[in-house]
Amino acid sequence: MKIARTCVLCGTFSILAISPASKLMGIAVASGSTHVGDRVPHAKPGIGVIVTQAYTNVIYGVKGLELLMKGLTPQRTLNTLLLEDPERELRQVAIMDFKRRKAVFSGVGTPEYHAEIVGKDYIVIGNLLFKKEVVSSMAKQFESASGDLAWRMAKALKAGSESGGDKRGEKSSALIVVGTEKVEVETKVDSHENPVEELFRRLKSVGKSME
Predict the structure, then answer these.
(1) Burial class for 135, CB neighbours closer than 10 Å (0-12, 13-18, 19+)
(2) Phi-psi region for residue 31, left (φ > 0), alpha (ψ -120 to 50) or beta?
(3) Which of 62, 78, 79, 105 sits most deeply, having the most CB atoms within 10 A of its CB?
(4) What is the tens place of the pLDDT at every residue in 68-100?
(5) Tell me: the pLDDT tens digits for 176-194?
(6) How does DSSP assign 22-72, residue by residue?
(7) What does the radius of gyration of the chain's CA atoms come to, in whole angstroms?
(8) What's the first-to-final CA gap in the chain, in angstroms?
(9) Which of 22, 20, 19, 182 is nearest to 99 (CA)?
(10) CB neighbour list of residue 190: distance below 8 Å, 6 or more residues apart
(11) Considering the entire predicted model, what is its pTM?
């Protein structure tokens, strides 16, 4: 069954990350499009996390998690999804599982600027960026940040925004953290003049450490 194109351009920058003890995984994302949290981030407790962006197709997230649940590695999962998608070159996708295995793809049709960085505990990807250095600033901030996983990802997202972010400016953001058995934190800022700052405000209202 072929994957049909979803004609939603999500100029987006995202971080996928795992905690040092591998007990938590998460995604933080911001975009110049509204409602980014409804399309780009996908997570399953005990399984893994996926982001699907650029010309976003949510099937990568939905079916990708199903394939991970069946025991496929992130790379095999990604290869399977790309093989079924005749418009794969429009996608930007990142996958990580609780075993710290990772897979990333940026098609040739991914909007410029686009970039990706794969670190020991994280993946940072972005497209339609103000400049490529947006992702490197996110990676550096995540590596140096203190606090639990949610805060470190949020700080990385803020660094990306402050270094240029989406070339259109940001309109929405989202953050999700899953443990081995349940969703620990999930918040979506669907439309806001400063969605990254609003994300920080909502995290503060949660008021708990997750690691």
Answers:
(1) buried
(2) beta
(3) 78
(4) 999 999 999 999 999 999 999 999 999 999 999
(5) 999 999 999 999 999 999 9
(6) SS-EEEEEEESSS-GGGTSEEEETTTEEEEEEEEE-THHHHHHHHHHHTT-
(7) 15
(8) 41
(9) 22
(10) 34, 35, 37, 38, 172
(11) 0.93
